Amino acid sequence: MSKPEMKSSSQGSLKTLLKGLRALEEVCRRKNGLKQSELAVVLKADRSTALRILNTMIEAGYLYKDADGRYHPTMRIPWLSHLILEGMEIRGYARKQLEKVTLETGFSSHLAILSEGQVVYVDGEEGRGMIKVNAGIGNVAPVHCSATGKALAAYLEESSLKTVLRGLSGDSFPQRYTANTIKDFPELLEEFSLTRQRGYAVDDEEYEVGIKCVAVPIFDYTGAAVATIGLSGTVSKIEEIGIESLAEKLQAAAAAVSSNLGYANSEKRGEENA
Fold first, then answer.
1. Dist CA 206 CA 213 (whole Å)
2. Is the pLDDT of residue 138 over 80?
3. Which end of the chain has less neighbouring CB within 10 Å, N or C?
4. DSSP for residue 229
5. Is the pTM of this model over 0.85?
6. Mean pLDDT of the chain
7. Are residues 70 and 108 located together in one domain of the fold?
C-alpha cells in the first residue's frame, strides 16, 4: 500500500470515529431517544452512514433500539463515567472530609468540579434526618445559581470566566429557576466578588425552593480552584445552625484537601482575594 493510500485510510477512520463520538453525544442528549433519520441530519450524512454508526455502537454495547425505532444509551455510559470518577485523585483526598462534615453537621455533603461550564458532582455523603438533600454522582448543576458553581467560577481567571459566562446561554442570561435566582451578569459578578471576600458561596433557594447550600473552593498546588466541597439542607435547618458556622467547617475541610493537593496557603486565600 502506498503512503498516500495509508494517509487517506487513516483520515477516513478518524472522520468515522469523530462522527461516532458525535452520534453518541447526541443520543445521550436526547431524553426521548434519537431516530436514524434525525442522526443523519445532525451528522450531515446519508442514512446508511447513520445506520452503520448506530449499529456499531449497539454491537459495542453503548446503545439499544426500542420498538419505535429510536436509539437510547445503555448503562455502559454511566459505567464508564463511574470508572473515570473512581480514578479521580481528588475524590480519595476528599472522602474523609465529606464524611466528617456530614457527621458533624448532619447535612448532605458533596464534592464537585467544573466541566464544560457546568458543575459536575463527583462524590458525596448523604445527610441524616427525614429530608435528605444530596446531588447524585455524575449529576450536573448550573454555575450561576448553585453554591458549588459560584464557589468555583468566582476564582476563575478573567479569560476562563468569560468563556464560562458566554457558554451559559449565549447572548442572554440563563434560566431563572426560582424567584431568588440571580437575574443578570452584573449581579452575578457582584456575587462572585462577595464569594471571594468571605471565602464561601451560598445558594439561597436560587436553584430549588426550600433548599439552601453553602460551598467552599478547593485549591491545587498552582492556586487554582479545582473543586469545591459543599453542604445542602432545608432552609430552616441550615439557618438554625447558621451559614457562617457551616462555612467554617467547610473551610477547614477544604483546607485539608487543598493541602493534600499541594496548596500551601489555604488560610491566606481569602485575604489575597479580599
1. 9
2. no
3. N
4. E
5. no
6. 83
7. no
Burial 14-24 (b: 16+ CB within 10 A, else e): eeeeebbeebb
Q: Residue ranges of the alpha helices (H) in 114-268?
A: 147-153, 158-169, 185-198, 235-241, 243-260
CB atoms within 10 A of CB 218: 32
Domain's final residue, options 74, 103, 131: 74
**HEC secondary structure over 88-132:** CHHHHHHHHHHHHHHHHHCCEEEEEEEECCEEEEEEEECCCCCCC
| Nearest partner of 229 among 89, 97, 81, 114, judged by Cα | 97
Rounded Cα–Cα distance for residues 66 and 31 (Å): 13
7 pLDDT higher than 70: no
pLDDT per position as a tens digit, 148-176: 999 999 998 877 777 777 666 555 566 78
Dihedral of alpha carbons 128, 129, 135, 136, sign:
positive
Has residue 3 been placed in a domain? Answer: no
The domain in which residue 24 lies consists of: 8-74
Report the C-alpha gap between 210 and 235 in whole angstroms: 6
C-alpha cell at 57: 455502537
User: What are the distances in angstroms from CA 12 to CA 6, 33, 43?
Assistant: 10, 27, 15
- Asked if 141 and 180 count as a contact pair (C-beta separation under 8 A), the reply is no
Q: How far apart are CA 102 and CA 124, in angstroms?
A: 9
User: What average pLDDT does this structure show over 237-249?
Assistant: 94
150 and 256 in a single domain? The answer is yes
Whether residue 237 lies inside any domain: the answer is yes
Length of the chain counted residue by residue: 274
pLDDT (tens digit, 9 = 90+) per residue, 183-238? Answer: 888 888 899 999 999 999 999 999 999 999 999 999 988 898 999 999 998 999 99
